[in-house]
Automatic annotation (TrEMBL):
Residues 47-299 form the G-protein coupled receptors family 1 profile domain. It is a multi-pass membrane protein. Belongs to the G-protein coupled receptor 1 family. Signal peptide: none annotated. GO terms for biological process: cellular response to lipid. It comes from Orycteropus afer afer. It comes from the Eukaryota. Gene3D superfamilies: Rhodopsin 7-helix transmembrane proteins (1.20.1070.10). Its main location: membrane. This is Olfactory receptor. Keywords: Cell membrane, G-protein coupled receptor, Membrane, Olfaction, Receptor, Sensory transduction, Transducer, Transmembrane, Transmembrane helix. InterPro entries: GPCR_Rhodpsn, GPCR_Rhodpsn_7TM, Olfact_rcpt, OR51/52/56-like. The chain crosses the membrane at residues 7-26, 32-55, 67-93, 105-126, 146-169, 203-228, 249-272, 278-301. One of its GO terms (cellular component) is plasma membrane. The gene is LOC103197134. The lineage of its organism: Eukaryota, Metazoa, Chordata, Craniata, Vertebrata.
Length: 318
């Protein structure tokens, strides 16, 4: 009997649960693979928690630049916690089932935190532009009220952009035989491909969200640094030019750590259909796990005030 004939009497179907996988082809060593994953999750949560505590407990860090860094750290913790439960459940216990609604909730938060991270990086580039182009009015422009409003707009933008996505998926008729996901978490592109229905609306809305958030943010960040570079080149002293650019290094590295995996995942999804499933899985893990791990390391190495404040927090706890 043909597959199409098998489902002819089913008018509408939504699976009670999806089946997740860890890293395809490496199931036999998931126990060993869980060790580096557990370590990375620990580093991400510990490092970002230390940044939040350091900024909160150090009065000298109560400045716009470090408030935005706190937003980045909080976002990285949210992104980490979005994937941690299901990823470690698959790797540690081979618990691969996730309920349909739970999958949609995880997907919403996972993609929302990604959009928030992109927006925070944009806000940080604006912060660097104001600090370099108009240092005397830096704190007057970026007051606490302005920073709070920026934070509210960032969260509202991500929520409004991603809110329709779960409902667009819930309207779809899914195939009873297609419940195996390609990752240990719920990715929008992955979930919608399990449907036995026209997903054109989902594809175009997903593309719209990506272009209107991450796409626009990346262009504005490039524009900000073009203006910053123009301002820096107008500074007479080479030493002052170097000092001005040096304040941007940490942020530039954070931007690269976030956007390079984003571009990589997008390219693999669009043009890498012939690649092994393990490549798709690893690209997604790099995109979601690596930035929260590296950001605290970057800022603790490149920013002396942050490094000293984090060490003070550790000594106080010790």
């Amino acid at each position: 009997m043909l597959p199409s004939q098998t489902y002819v009497n089913i008018s509408f179907f939504q699976p009670p649960a999806f089946l997740m996988i860890g890293i395809p082809g490496l199931e036999a060593i998931h126990g060993w693979i869980s060790i580096p994953f557990s370590s990375m999750y620990t580093v991400a949560l510990t490092g970002n928690s230390l940044i939040l505590l350091a900024v909160r407990r150090t009065p000298s860090l109560h400045q716009p630049m470090y408030y935005f860094l706190s937003m980045l750290a909080l976002t990285d913790m949210g992104l980490t916690l979005s994937t941690l439960p299901t990823t470690l459940a698959v790797l540690w216990f081979d618990h691969r089932l996730i309920g349909f609604n739970a999958c949609l909730v995880q997907m919403f938060f996972l993609h929302s935190f990604s959009v928030v991270e992109s927006s925070v990086l944009l806000a940080m580039s604006f912060d660097r532009f104001v600090a370099i182009s108009n240092p005397l009015r830096y704190t007057a422009v970026l007051t606490n009220n302005v920073i709070i409003r920026i934070g509210i707009v960032i969260v509202a933008r991500a929520t409004v952009s991603l809110f329709p996505v779960p409902f667009l998926l819930k309207r779809l008729n899914f195939c009873p035989g297609k419940i195996l996901l390609s990752h240990s978490f719920c990715f929008h592109a992955d979930v919608m491909k399990r449907a036995c229905a026209d997903i054109t609306v989902n594809i175009f809305y997903g593309l719209y969200v990506v272009l209107s958030t991450v796409g626009v943010d990346s262009l504005l960040i490039v524009m900000s640094y073009t203006l910053i570079l123009h301002t820096v080149m107008g500074i007479a002293s080479p030493r002052e030019r170097f000092r001005a650019l040096n304040t941007c290094v940490s942020h530039i590295l954070a931007v690269l750590v976030f956007y390079i995996p984003v571009i990589g995942v997008s390219m693999i999804h669009r043009f890498g259909k012939h690649l092994p499933h393990v490549v798709h899985a690893l690209a997604a893990y790099v995109y979601l796990v690596i930035p929260p791990v590296l950001n605290p390391i970057i800022y603790s190495i490149k920013s002396k005030p942050i490094r000293e404040a984090m060490l003070k927090v550790l000594r106080r706890k010790g």
